[in-house]
Amino acid sequence: MKSGSTMKKTFEIFSKNKLARVGKLRTKNGEINTPFFMPDATRGFIKLLSKHDLEGIGARPMVVNTYHLYLQPGMELIKKGGGIHKFMNWDGPLLSDSGGYQIFSLIHKNSKLGKITDEQAVFKSPIDGRKHELTPEKSIQIQFDLGVDMMVVLDDVPPVTYSDRKMKVAIDRTISWAKRCKIEYEKQIQERGIAKDQRPLLFGVIQGGKDAELRKYCAQELVKLDFDGYGFGARHVDENGVFMQEMVAETAKMIPEDKLRFALGVGTPEDIVRFVACGWDMFDCVIPTREGRHGRLFIWDEQSEFTNLKSQITNKIQNSKSKLQKSFYKTININNHKFNDDFSPVDTFCDCELCRNHSRAYLRHLFVSKDPLGMRLAAMHNLKFYLDLMEKLRAT
Question: What domain count does the chain have?
Answer without folding.
Answer: 2
